[in-house]
Specification:
Length: 363
């Protein structure tokens, strides 16, 4: 893929924004550039890196009306050698195409996606945040640009990659366990729908539930299946729990759950974690009674942005609260977090190919 470059002078805003004592938060900052490529006449064309800035989009663009848009979330980390490494980026590229297929968006070859991401990180590598524990959050997305109001798949798209120098997703970071709202009022997905894709519309549909969660002092909703019997996942992460023998349990991936790359990594890491990791259908009633009997000792969420987020309690809409263990961050959760983040930061060798060096070409 021959990428064209239109670069602005580097380091313009670095002095203001890269103060190690400032909490950069999640997703607030941008780097200087973005990667763009268009789909026209049946092929992806014109790969380019340009200054980050607004798009020109037709008011009738299909993405704006009918939500034909999918995205990914991945991360890159700076290792002790000063170089930048992406984490399981091939899995994100595969999943973008899975999501695209669910929304009738043409696939974008995985290697093209990876080359685009590497080229952009290379150009903006000096934006890697100086804060302890920070990363470059990578947001690739595809949206339908054809200017047409009939409801059928667009024939034109834009693929964009932007980068966000980021800290933790939850403002309390890993130190404080969050609370989740268990509700029968909202559902994220139904079988045969778009739940297994990272479709923009799934997140629009979660906003009302997120507001309800906040009213209960909860960080997010724990979604149940459409019959309110099984635990599915959380708004921006998969769910897990830990049994008293240390076994980690993740709900089975179905077509109503996003197949989390973090969950998949924890499943793959079983041996390094020193415990069994398995997937099964998790029934809500059993889950709650197992917490109350002490059979379940820890719980949390897995996700790229959220990493490993401890859950200390659940609240129902009748205000009943169920506390997991002592409501704090458990030892197993701490271990999972440490193993995963040590691999991401290059402090622990993970399976072959998980971390990929971003080659220096421009900077
Ligand atoms: N589930 C949902 C709905 C998400 O938005 C995310 C975040 O990407 C996840 C799960 C976790 O997936 P991953 O670990 O691949 O980031
Ligand atoms: C991610 O974890 O990368 C996500 O995409 C979650 C996002 C909705 C903040």
């Amino acid at each position: 893929m021959q990428i064209t470059y239109n670069l602005k002078p580097a380091l313009e805003r670095r002095a203001e924004q890269f103060n190690p004592t400032i909490n950069v938060g999640f997703g607030n900052l941008r780097t200087d550039h973005m990667f763009l490529m268009d789909y026209r006449d049946g092929e992806w064309r014109d790969p380019r890196i340009v200054p980050y800035g607004p798009f020109e989009v037709a008011p009738g663009a299909i993405a704006l009306h009918y939500g034909q848009s999918v995205f990914e979330g991945a991360k890159a980390f700076q290792h002790d050698d000063g170089e930048i490494y992406t984490f399981r980026i091939d899995k994100n590229a595969q999943r973008l195409n899975r999501s695209a297929d669910i929304l009738c968006i043409p696939a974008l070859p995985e290697q093209m996606q990876i080359d685009a991401i590497n080229a952009l990180i290379d150009v903006d590598r000096l934006w890697f945040p100086m804060q302890e524990g920070a990363c470059l959050y990578i947001r690739p997305f595809i949206f339908a640009t054809e200017d047409r109001l009939s409801v059928s798949p667009s024939e034109q798209y834009t693929f964009c990659v932007m980068l966000s120098p980021s800290g933790p997703y939850y403002s309390d970071g890993f130190d404080k366990a969050i609370r989740l709202l268990i509700t029968e009022r909202f559902h994220r997905a139904v079988s045969g729908g778009t739940g297994a894709s990272k479709a923009a519309g799934n997140y629009a549909a979660s906003l009302k539930a997120g507001k309800a969660a906040a009213e209960y002092g909860a960080a997010q909703v724990l979604y149940l299946d459409a019959n309110n019997k099984q635990i599915e996942e959380v708004g921006a992460m998969n769910h897990f729990h830990v049994l008293k023998d240390g076994t980690i349990v993740i709900p089975k991936f179905t077509d109503t759950i996003l197949k989390s790359i973090t969950s998949q990594s924890i499943l793959d890491l079983g041996e390094l974690l020193g415990c069994e990791v398995r997937q099964e259908t998790v029934m809500l009633d059993q889950f709650i009674s197992d917490i109350e009997s002490g059979e379940i000792i820890e719980a949390g969420g897995f996700g790229t942005a959220a990493v490993v987020s401890p859950v200390g309690s659940y609240i129902f809409e009748d205000n009943r609260i169920v506390t997991v263990g002592n409501g704090g961050v458990g030892e197993h959760t701490k271990r999972i977090y440490k193993v995963l983040t040590d691999i991401q930061k290059g402090h622990l060798k993970g399976p072959e190919g998980w971390v990929q060096h971003v080659k220096r070409v421009h900077v």
